[in-house]
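Summarise this fold before class:
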Amino acid sequence: MVRYEVHLETPHLRMIHKAADILKEGGIVIYPTDTVYGIGCSMYHKPAIEKLYKIKGKSKFQSMSMICDSIQQASQYVHISNATFRILKKCFPGPYTIILPAKHEIAKLMLSRQKEIGVRIPGNPVCQLLVRELTHPILNTSVSMPEDDLGFYPEPESRNPFTDSADLMLDSGPFPDQIESTVLRIHDNEIEILREGKGDIGILSL
């Protein structure tokens, strides 16, 4: 696996371009988000999707999330009502995963006929620039380590299923905290809190 050191707020564009090229070619990339490190692939490359599910140890019936650069881009893949749009405006960009009803495009792209998918729009220039360079969302899942670990940050010489399987890591160093995103499901304009994480659920009542 190749590592590029990137600044979390001002990443070098050459490194972003290289990561996007790898994704376009069906590769797997590890990158920093605004919560924990993520690992992902192009949503338009079926062999890469199969590999990502295998790395994560998920079945094709378990949903992942997609990283988008905007609510407008997300609307191409999920149904967003006016009420849902107002909620998304409060949450994004930010440390939330919002599970929404999927459009037919998702069923065509994914390995199973998923009826919903998580949407992430991290408040992180690395992710924003990477998705814009790719020109479509990244199929994303978190890079997890054992529960007693402080979080994912492998040293260059360390080995684990994620670094062993990825083609490139955009390395911003260890994060000051390792808190996963707050996960919400919105269905029929009703909000269900599935996991409280870094995102403040208090904004939902504003």
The helical segments are 13-24, 46-56, 71-74, 82-91, 104-109, 125-134, 161-165.
